[in-house]
Amino acid sequence: MKNSTIQQRLLGLVQDQIPDKYSLVYELSELLGISTDSVYRRLRRETLLDITEIQKICMHFNISFDSICGCEDSGLVSFQYHPIKELTDFNNWFLTLANDLKALQNKEDTHIIYAAIDIPIFHNFRFPLVSYFKSLYWLKSITNHPDFLNVKFSLNQISDEFISKGKEMHGLYAAVPSTEIWTDLITYSLLRQIDYYWDSGEFATKDDALALCDEVQKEFEYLHAAASASSKSPDKQKIPGEKVNFQLYDCDIEIATNCVLVISGNIKTVYQSTQTFNIFKTSNVVFVEETHRWLDSLLKKSTLISDVGEKQRSLFFKDAYDKITQLKKKISES
């Protein structure tokens, strides 16, 4: 690959993280310690970046060099991976996702394809009880964080700041057009976790457990409405001619892990879950193209249940409502 092409790809990845071109020039000028004229010469590829400048850009914007240097035939794929070990890591994980979504706002030709094994986490952020439960489950039962080992789920533990951040995160996701691929097991993970916590005595009171179940019900009612309206903001009046920003597919093929493909112009990035909340992230050309082909294959073998497909949509969500009702009955009668 020509050096100028590598430079173009690198700066394209940087541009994908910055809202507009003026900011890109300013950011690079500050980062590299060069004038804006010098930045423009590099953007026009009249001047090549030197190795030190490339290093600074890759380090600052968390870009792996192999994703842009044309090493597709080497079989090597580099991932960004920042495991959650401490509570501060969890907060950083939250901020990283928020910043990635902010970078997509108001960009043209941006789309998210999300193959999900459980309810996509961005929907949970709209519902603070669900979001807090998933966070507690991760910190307490998966990472065994010492600060949470003796903590039981309680409505009193949810702060206003947590609720506010969750609404902001959901708003950012709702603004980006997306296609989601679900299976009929989409409710299984969350309800199984709630059931397990109830049997294990991990709720402070029965009312706390039932309140969580009620909010899970509300979440599925919201998702049902979103699918019917083909919009992640179904409560807002649709503008005539407005583009569809939410498509939901029901897939009979088993999906092994949560996988998200973000397409922004010519730039594609894959986020793949591991160890429940942890994420691998890469823009390696070979990997993202293979992932895109796999997702396209899933879509062709799936049934669209948003907008059209009213009967199948109703059956899909009826199954979810029935499972929630059964869990609430078990808790109420215990």
Please give a structural write-up.
The chain has 334 residues and is an alpha+beta fold. It folds into two domains: 3-63, 434 Repressor (Amino-terminal Domain); 80-333, no CATH class. It is 51% helix and 12% strand. An eight-stranded mixed sheet has the order 1-7-6-5-2-3-4-8, sandwiched between helices. A hairpin with a 3-residue loop joins strand 6 and strand 7. Helix 2 (21-32) crosses helix 3 and helix 5 packs parallel to helix 8 (160-174). It is globular. The protein starts with a helix and ends with a helix.
How far apart are the termini?
66 Å
Number of strands: 8
Largest β-sheet summary:
8 strands, mixed
Instruction: Strand order, main sheet: write it out.
Output: 1-7-6-5-2-3-4-8
* Mean pLDDT figure: 88
Radius of gyration: 22 Å
Structural class: alpha+beta
Which blocks of ≥5 consecutive residues have pLDDT under 50?
Answer: none
Shape: globular
H/I helix tally: 12
Order of helices and strands: HHHHEHEHHHEHHEEEEHEH
The helicity comes to 40-55%
Number of domains: 2
Relative strand content: 5-15%
